[in-house]
Amino acid sequence: MLNDHIALPLNTAISAILDDWTREGWLRSVDHAFTCLLNEESGEQNEIVLLLAALTSQQVGQGNICLDLQQAVSEPMVLWPEHWAVEPQEETLDTPPAWLRQRPIDELAAALAKSTVVSTPGQDEVDDSRPLVFSGNRLYLRRYWRHEQEVAEALEKRLVAEPTVAEGLPERLAGLFPQAQDQAPATGPDWQKVASALALHSPLTIITGGPGTGKTTTVVRLLGLLQARHLEGGEDRALRIRLAAPTGKAAARLSESIGGAVEALALDRSVKDAIPREATTLHRLLGSRRNSRFFRHDRHNPLHADVVVVDEASMIDLEMTAKLLDALPSDCRLILLGDKDQLASVEAGAVLGDLCRGAEAGDYRADTVAWIDSACGEDIRDFQADSDDQAPAIRQHTVMLRHSHRFSAESGIGGLAKAINEGDSDRSLDLLGEADRDVTQQTLKGPDDTVVESLALAGYRDYLSLMEDQRPQEHGDKAPLDEETRAWAKQVIHAFSRFQVLATVRQGSLGVNGLNERIARKLKSAELVKNHHGWYEGRPVMMTRNDYELGLMNGDVGICLKTRLEDEDEARLRVAFELPDGKIRLVLPSRLDGAESVYAMTVHKSQGSEFNRVLVVLPEQDNPILSRELLYTAVTRAREGVTIAATGHALIRAAVERQVTRRSGLRERLGL
Ligand SMILES: Nc1ncnc2c1ncn2[C@@H]1O[C@H](COP(=O)(O)OP(=O)(O)OP(=O)(O)O)[C@@H](O)[C@H]1O
């Protein structure tokens, strides 16, 4: 048993453990460096405090907001990737879980409570000189504790409701949401209508739902209603509505679907014209500044907006959520849209997932049920909590859309997505095994099975053929008109975006890097492209960083094309990107920093994008990254067809059965 009064010099026992854990890959070097700094700058010598600090930092690297001590001690293996599952043996190195298992939580808590590098809210002030915060058995890096606190406080301020039903509201909602226009279930509430009614009622609304459940359609109708009501109120200016999404791709997709939905609104032209068609990225909305994690807009310089809609909210990490909430004026409505079951952001925190976990149940209070009845006549009593005390306030602002208008829950992509989501591996495999479906499984003989390249070739042949067939003609010895070149480039980009290979890992022949190489070679040998390395016509690339000068964002995809502009004597290779406003930007390859081939992309990178068909390639061996959320996200990128290529059923089964939960204290703070 450790004695926390003994001040151990870091260069001996603790240092040895830190070195071992880092060498074994259990800590990142940044976690190691942070811990050493803690010792050097603050003089902290206690083994428990230092090693817990290292593990907390490591947990942030895993996407968690904090180290949950209770869980760390009682079920340490849950907190770390499975490759740490080495049972400690006498005289062998302690794994972090083994180290934790030997220490009762009281001992850990006592050491933290005494430490001068740890603040304990409730006991002392959280001050900026202490890098760690210990709260409710959770250990945080101070920055993340603050973000969590800011998010919880800002959300709580928004958990209020406007008390009255405006005159004529039921009729208006009925007008905007006529009886189901397609095969929507005749029974059960019209959740789209419920979502709009709730949103009209409060400054914060969260609308979650799987692909094609009508989130965008709902929000457009809601915006129409808000704007119409506002303009009729005799205001001298329209509501300032801003639309945003976490990535450029997601923003472009939102812009695309909003345009059509606004036109379809049964409202006056003046109202439609007062609804924006273009979405921007969250970074642009908040005004990102080069080399700074601060934004131009914050509480001191809030956004000029009355309504902010953020799509693909599952991709927003905790820090970004804090910044967004900080920049909103207090009277601005916030509407978050997203699919709670998708992968969380790469950065720490899964705010939408945290807020919406369990949202299926509804958990509405009696007054919410009554409000919905009076505002739109929908009966949500089946989703009422047993008592108001058990109904968290945030649930009164949350609606889950349940019916996919894109695909039915019984078949194909919809059925597979549902089975994966429910962790039902047998059903997932059954669906993949059935003939005549839009979802199929391809069993690979091994990691180098060439069927992968053949499937990719079949998917990519179209855009490469179109690139050749539709190439703009030169006019005599004159170049084609620039607008012809750009129109062609746009066609090629759109054709490319119909199919995508998705990989779950980067390394290995079934990882992104290996697949890019293999597919490029295959296309070259099929003479669809002229080269398979360097820059060549037909090469699709993805930006891996933001380039503000070029207006290109991390994740933007472009295609390398041979183009001759009007004032040029000969053709040059340029990479064509479609910007969010639909314009084509042509960029010389030498201007692009950090662009990678994108025949295959990671599932993480594909979030916010959709393709007609996807080929999902699983790695050769099971890997902790393979999870239900990952597979669900991959499968729901497809509109028409999915093939999952794997070396066996076991991998698919393992992925469906593994669930990822990010640790944070947000749910507890919000009474969830
Ligand atoms: N109530 C409805 N009745 C009939 N069709 C609908 C209804 N709501 C939405 N749709 C249609 O369903 C499709 C998907 O809707 P929408 O784009 O709003 O869903 P979404 O949840 O935003 O989808 P995703 O986020 O997956 O793109 C659209 O074609 C839309 O017109």
TrEMBL record:
It catalyses: ATP + H2O = ADP + phosphate + H(+). Keywords: ATP-binding, DNA damage, DNA repair, DNA-binding, Exonuclease, Helicase, Hydrolase, Isomerase, Nuclease, Nucleotide-binding. It comes from the Bacteria. It is an enzyme of class 5 (isomerase). Signal peptide: none annotated. ATP binds at G209, G210, P211, G212, T213, G214, K215, T216. Its EC number is 5.6.2.3. Residues 201-585 form the AAA+ ATPase domain. GO terms for molecular function: exodeoxyribonuclease V activity. It holds the Pfam family RecD_N. InterPro entries: AAA+_ATPase, Coronavir_polyprotein_1ab, P-loop_NTPase, RecD, RecD2_SH13, RecD_N, RecD_N_sf, UvrD-like_helicase_C. In the RecBCD complex, RecB has a slow 3'-5' helicase, an exonuclease activity and loads RecA onto ssDNA, RecD has a fast 5'-3' helicase activity, while RecC stimulates the ATPase and processivity of the RecB helicase and contributes to recognition of the Chi site. A helicase/nuclease that prepares dsDNA breaks (DSB) for recombinational DNA repair. Binds to DSBs and unwinds DNA via a highly rapid and processive ATP-dependent bidirectional helicase activity. Unwinds dsDNA until it encounters a Chi (crossover hotspot instigator) sequence from the 3' direction. Cuts ssDNA a few nucleotides 3' to the Chi site. The properties and activities of the enzyme are changed at Chi. The Chi-altered holoenzyme produces a long 3'-ssDNA overhang and facilitates RecA-binding to the ssDNA for homologous DNA recombination and repair. Belongs to the RecD family. Heterotrimer of RecB, RecC and RecD. All subunits contribute to DNA-binding. This is RecBCD enzyme subunit RecD. It comes from Natronospira proteinivora. The lineage of its organism: Bacteria, Pseudomonadati, Pseudomonadota, Gammaproteobacteria, Natronospirales.
